[in-house]
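quick one if you have a minute, typing this from the bus. below you get a single protein, a line of residues and a line of whole numbers that encode the local backbone shape. could you go over both lines and see whether the tokens make sense for that sequence. anything you notice is useful, everything is just below.
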Amino acid sequence: MKPVIALFGPTAIGKTGVAIELARMLREGDEDPVAINCDSIQVYEGLEVISGAASEEDQRELEHRLLSFVPVTEEFSAGKFGEAARREIDAAVESGRRPILVGGTGLYLRAALSDLEMKPPVDKDLREQVESEIASRGADALHAELPAELAERVHPNDRKRIARLTELIRAGMDPHPDHQGGGELWTSSLRHPTVMVGLVEDDEVLTEKIRARVGAMAANGAGEEADRAIEAGASRTVRAAIGFDEFRAGDLERVVTLQRRYGRRQMTWMRRMEGVEVVDRTGLDDREVAGEILRLAAASAAS
């Protein structure tokens, strides 16, 4: 069986371009690939600019599933996403299409690839209490109150994850199964044979790509997009998008800083994760990277 291809990496590293080249090369072998989005913000309708979702032109090159299908007023979760993604993957495999999972959200990718047991939502009052504390005291203050074994895995500025961990702890639930970094999720628990590829790049090169991308997002209306989401009643998970408030304020340098920090954490995580094939794309174009991924996929299928 030809393996599912899961492509992961930080913002601006060129995942969409690589996926499109992968699709072209697969079609040369008479395959019919389909991309499945695994980014937690690209699922929202109306956040296409801020999330860096595949453009209409990109989607004409390669069909993308699970893009822009959730209203900005809704709180979405990895559990809900996992159910939808597994249906898409199973349907593609059953019809003979090769799924290419593309994303920058590790938990969403894991939920798509395995039967990940997610923690249930906490009580609304508790959630609002935690959100109020983060707003008044700052995410770093609640980060300092986390148990050491959890705090060391979460950046003090990662508001969304700090909130979730704090909620679970205060609700009396053990957060470890969702937040220990994967473990067997990348090996024995995969639902389909899968080659998992993490893209990394030289920090200076990637930073310049991020800076250019942030500038393009601002020029294409990222701030106005965020304003419209607020007017529509944007949910907590929408407002947690990196750069959401900063684009509204026009603080592009802050957006670059936040994206760069997040990208570094993603690349560190990928390098440590068992079962992820790390591809350094520094100096390589999209087609060269796609060729290396296909080589890895062929080796996986033959093993």
Remarks:
- The beta strands are 4-8, 34-37, 64-65, 99-103, 194-200, 276-280.
- Confidence is low (pLDDT under 50) at residues 178-187.
- The longest strand covers residues 194-200.
- DSSP finds 16 helices and six strands in the chain.
